[in-house]
Amino acid sequence: MNIDFHQRLASVASEIEDVLVTIFDVATDPPVPARLLNAMRYAALGGGKRLRPFLVVETANLLNGDSGAALRAGAAIEFVHVYSLAHDDLPAMDDDDLRRGKPTLHLAFDEATAILAGDTLQTLAFETLSDPATSTDPAMRAELVLLLARAAGGAGMAGGQMLDLEAEGRFSAEVELNAHAIRQLQAMKTGAILSCAVEMGATIGRANAQQYQALLSYGRALGAAFQIADDILDVESSSAELGKATGKDAGRGKGTLVGLWGLGKAKAELARLVDEAVHALALFGEEADILRAAAHFTAERRS
Amino acid sequence: MNIDFHQRLASVASEIEDVLVTIFDVATDPPVPARLLNAMRYAALGGGKRLRPFLVVETANLLNGDSGAALRAGAAIEFVHVYSLAHDDLPAMDDDDLRRGKPTLHLAFDEATAILAGDTLQTLAFETLSDPATSTDPAMRAELVLLLARAAGGAGMAGGQMLDLEAEGRFSAEVELNAHAIRQLQAMKTGAILSCAVEMGATIGRANAQQYQALLSYGRALGAAFQIADDILDVESSSAELGKATGKDAGRGKGTLVGLWGLGKAKAELARLVDEAVHALALFGEEADILRAAAHFTAERRS
Lengths: 303, 303
Fold this sequence. Notes:
Number of helices of chain A: 15
Family (chains A, B): Belongs to the FPP/GGPP synthase family.
Helix content of chain A: over 70%
Oligomer: homodimer
CATH superfamily of chain A: Farnesyl Diphosphate Synthase
Largest interface: A-B, 55 and 55 residues
Structural class of chain A: mainly alpha
CATH topology of chain A: Farnesyl Diphosphate Synthase
Keywords (chains A, B): Isoprene biosynthesis, Magnesium, Metal-binding, Transferase
CATH architecture of chain A: Orthogonal Bundle
Number of domains of chain A: 1
Order of helices and strands of chain A: HHHHEEHHHHHHHHHHH
Cofactor (chains A, B): Mg(2+)
Strand order of the largest sheet of chain A: 1-2
CATH class of chain A: Mainly Alpha
Largest sheet of chain A: 2 strands, antiparallel
Strand content of chain A: under 5%
Pfam families (chains A, B): polyprenyl_synt
Protein name (chains A, B): (2E,6E)-farnesyl diphosphate synthase
């Protein structure tokens, strides 16, 4: 199963890359200014595991949903992910130098271009979803836009980033978060978009209520597992392995479950969440093995 | 007609303010972090003429379109406008201190919050449009999202801002733009969103092809007129009158038609464009007088 999973992950990543390239090519007519488009390409192409698109594609596939719609929805969620990385890396935010093994966008270009390219990648996500090329069904297009907007907005990803800045004491004294507050922050900052990927796939696959609820539980457990795994990697891995800065959460006093509990208890909680994600898929047969493998991968990845 | 117009502009602005407040109130459930929500409110509430929402509402009204849908679409386009102002004002962009007569968002809060609040206002625009509360017709919701995304993105507003930064010599030597290039830049930077406002109203009013084309011509002429009027105000008005910095375009060598042609020829072109906008509405009767008045107002406003 594991070998199949890595092959499939790479295969979907390759398909997504093609879709991203195609969308950028279309963006030259009418013309997006070259510098802006180059910055968007730099941020979006040739990097990342494409885990969020993978979840859209494989969830839709489980339900025999339209694979073309899933790929375009996967591209849209990747645009949002990449825009958030570009803005989070800005000097005024986390001030990072390295992303996906390359200089961050504002170093490769400049701050103004990085702000604008991030803004435009977000816009492009919603343009992609609302375009009839994604689905001939306008109700599906509108639903995908709503799912992504809710996950990316103030009660989701962007709100989580704000809580993260507050937790590190950016605006007042550093805040000591308890486990509940850390979970809430992480459910917003990274969980919402990962869970949204599964929900988009479920929507494209026209899941019934029972299937939707099961997939939502899966997505939420996987999202929580992903962030704990990320925090463990931040402690245990080198910057070279991750292709981004490490050790910075501890250094800045950011609230993580690893920091609060130590590695042992955090790893036990991670295992529990993977188990929860796997069991949420009980109503599906072995055709859901790829999603079960994704839950294991989320916990066991080394980068 | 002019007195009616100003009353109507104020009346729509008041209705839009109510819709914005309601949308922000809903954003507290599930909770958007208080600091983020406060920054979004600061940027969006209590200021501006609300010209873009006015154009959505009055165009929809001309065609007897759903006024509730028009108000929510107007709120969405205002969110995009306000996000772009917040990001344009950032130190890395135009580095402005004053906006709508108040300190700019990054001064009232801080840069990180201003970036995040801008990001979230953009997301909220698409969430607002795709929400069933805007229209029970999902095809209309999807179409409104697509219109706004195209107008706001790399081939529209954000692309125009990039061209503007390039024109002021930010990335290389200052670029001398000819009239064609200035028109292109301005059609993207400010024209696309103003024109989009009219198109959204036409979509909500289910305009037929002939009506749509006429309104599109109106919107484009009005958008071009708006920018020339803005450039004239930048030269002729004080910062106190405008509630934002003035004289900066000339100081930075930005390409404007006023700079290229001088005030006399620019004012003649402005009058021509207002005339063009008014005549584009020939197929409508006096019920389009309010849009004709909007074209005159665009040219004659003092702030």
